[in-house]
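> call design_seq(struct)
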């Protein structure tokens, strides 16, 4: 029964599905499929299956609170429900999943609408890695008739910057690809930096692709505005109660296939950018200060803090 879940988890682990939003969407769809194909005979068995699926999905990538928030919310709707029949519970999973996906889609649109206003004609935008939320915002600015340029970092070791570069070229945007270490070299030509997020902590710090905090530091030194483009549901509630956001460490062979013996290779997938480096978080509630994240979450998504 859990085979499709395992297959989705594997695709997430191997980066066939990449980026926090796409990871969450894949996980939600996998849970929906599981609920539709379940052979569980009662609520207890159904919840057991969902819980096993949750563990498999969560262990696919550690630094993905959007996926965790989504899956937890969907499962909690089943737990809270008075129905006992599996068919009815399947309906609950389907409608909770659809609702979550719809909300995510609305947030993406709202973010693009707000953020696109920050892109002026002839702006040069630097972005890191591949964030579907950032590229959607840039698409919106382009559709609104703005003419701008994009500089993409390669984003070693697995080069997600190439995905961004291809998308920008397809949009008809003038695009330059640079190695990550050339960021300072080009920063004085950049008008604003836009990056995505995998997690936002209760203190307003932002977790994103390794190298993001270095770019934020460079942007601050060059006085270039640095914005994080993110749905609020990437907030990780566990950080409010003292836990640190876990940072996934990936395989060494992503960096060097046949390294010399005894060489230590470290490959963290993400780093943490302190809130003081972030001009603003462009989210579905507007452009907010990272300092206000907990209040905004209280107002917009109180269930996340329960
Ligand atoms: C992707 C990455 C993205 C965020 C946001 O890392 O760091 O900036 O996930 O993406 P990886 P989105 O390639 O390791 O998943 O805006 O699409 O959610």
């Amino acid at each position: 029964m859990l085979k499709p879940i395992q297959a989705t988890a594997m695709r997430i682990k191997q980066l066939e599905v990449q980026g926090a939003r796409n990871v969450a969407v894949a996980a939600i769809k996998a849970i929906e499929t599981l609920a539709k194909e379940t052979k569980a005979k009662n609520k207890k068995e159904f919840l057991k299956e969902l819980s096993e699926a949750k563990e498999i999905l969560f262990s696919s990538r550690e630094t993905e609170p959007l996926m965790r928030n989504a899956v937890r919310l969907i499962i909690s709707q089943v737990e809270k429900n008075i129905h006992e029949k599996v068919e009815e519970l399947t309906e609950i999973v389907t409608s909770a999943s659809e609702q979550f996906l719809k909300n995510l889609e609305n947030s993406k649109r709202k973010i693009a609408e707000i953020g696109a206003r920050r892109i002026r004609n002839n702006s040069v935008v630097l972005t890191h890695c591949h964030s579907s939320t950032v590229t959607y915002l840039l698409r919106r600015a382009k559709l609104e008739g703005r003419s701008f340029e994009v500089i993409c970092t390669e984003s070693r070791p697995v080069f997600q910057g190439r995905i961004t570069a291809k998308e920008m070229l397809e949009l008809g945007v003038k695009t330059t690809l640079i190695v990550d270490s050339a960021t300072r070299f080009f920063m004085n030509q950049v008008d604003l930096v836009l990056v995505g997020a995998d997690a936002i902590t209760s203190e307003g710090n932002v977790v994103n692709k390794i190298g993001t905090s270095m770019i934020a530091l460079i942007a601050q030194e060059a006085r270039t505005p640095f914005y994080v483009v993110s749905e609020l549901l990437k907030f990780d509630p566990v950080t409010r109660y003292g836990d640190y956001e876990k940072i996934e460490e990936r395989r060494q062979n992503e960096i060097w296939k046949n390294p010399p013996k005894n060489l230590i290779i470290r490959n963290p997938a993400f780093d943490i950018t302190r809130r003081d480096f972030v001009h603003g978080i462009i989210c579905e509630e507007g452009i907010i200060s990272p300092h206000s994240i907990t209040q905004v979450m209280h107002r917009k998504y109180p269930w996340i803090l329960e």
